[in-house]
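Structure (tokenized):
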């Protein structure tokens, strides 16, 4: 499967490079010179593992938010005036989804809350707001500041915040939301860092330069595209928000992320696998498996064994 996608991407890249406005005079054929092949610089193993681990966190947070939102919208007593912010966060042995708003005294007042086991964030159940852990005000403050900033930049109100409590502070990812099953939005995402009380913004980092629509609509034959591809400008390798998107929505098939070296792409798969691929050789250089370990080098480009009973043509 990976090989066929790589071949398709090689053809696409070659086709783009074939167009040129320059015209050269014909020259006599010469024997090609032997030149050393330039090395490919890969993202460090530790960074790929960080991306994968954080992507899994984002996926769990989003599953919890989706489950809680479904329960919220089904409430017969739902009062939308009591809420304008929401977030999902793990505390202890549970995930908590909280919906509420700031009052006139600038304090966050939770209106609705849900809780799920830490291992199953998508199994939310109604939870009394009076029993919520402390510190929700700080998280709501960071989320509101982050989402308001992203709205200023992209003008879309459909935003999905992901909260991480780490390093004595608060990290907030803001992802673009969407509800079209044939069109996904990559990009438009930010990563913010805040002080522990959520009042001071310490970092604002755009993860993509703009919004990137990714269509998975079937063609005239009913076939969906097997993968999507885009080139990075801001970062040398894949991002946690990109891998999380592929993991959350397997209909995307996969995502190829181009690096600064045009001969290198990172292939992201719905199971969390990250592969570094050298296009000119159709060669997998590194593979981070779903369990967080790296595949041994000798196994990366081995031809697959034929299935039992399959015909082998020599």
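Design, position by position:
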């Amino acid at each position: 499967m990976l090989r066929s996608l790589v071949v398709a991407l090689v053809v696409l890249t070659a086709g783009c490079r074939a167009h040129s406005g320059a015209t050269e005079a014909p020259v006599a054929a010469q024997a090609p010179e032997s030149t050393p092949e330039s090395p490919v610089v890969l993202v460090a193993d530790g960074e790929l593992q960080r991306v994968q681990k954080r992507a899994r966190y984002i996926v769990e947070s989003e599953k919890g938010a989706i489950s809680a939102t479904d329960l919220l919208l089904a409430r017969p007593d739902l009062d939308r005036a009591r809420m304008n912010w929401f977030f999902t966060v793990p505390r202890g042995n549970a995930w908590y989804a909280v919906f509420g708003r700031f009052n006139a005294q600038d304090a966050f007042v939770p209106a609705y809350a849900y809780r799920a086991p830490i291992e199953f964030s998508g199994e939310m159940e109604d939870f009394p707001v009076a029993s919520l852990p402390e510190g929700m005000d700080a998280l709501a403050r960071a989320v509101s500041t982050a989402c308001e900033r992203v709205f200023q930049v992209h003008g879309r109100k459909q935003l999905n915040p992901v909260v991480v409590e780490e390093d004595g502070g608060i990290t907030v990812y803001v992802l673009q939301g969407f509800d079209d099953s044939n069109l996904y939005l990559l990009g438009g995402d930010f990563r913010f860092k805040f002080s522990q009380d959520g009042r001071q913004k310490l970092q604002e980092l755009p993860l993509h330069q703009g919004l990137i629509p990714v269509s998975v609509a079937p063609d005239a034959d009913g076939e969906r595209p097997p993968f999507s591809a885009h080139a990075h400008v801001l970062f040398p390798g894949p991002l946690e928000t990109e891998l999380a998107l592929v993991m959350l929505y397997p209909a995307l098939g996969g995502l190829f992320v181009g690096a600064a070296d045009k001969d290198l792409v990172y292939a992201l798969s719905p199971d969390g696998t990250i592969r570094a691929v050298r296009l000119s050789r159709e060669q997998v250089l590194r593979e981070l498996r779903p369990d967080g370990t790296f595949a041994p080098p000798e196994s990366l480009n081995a031809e697959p064994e034929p299935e039992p009973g399959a015909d082998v043509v020599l």
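Reviewer-requested clarification: The CA atoms of residues 39 and 261 lie 10 Å apart. The radius of gyration is 23 Å.
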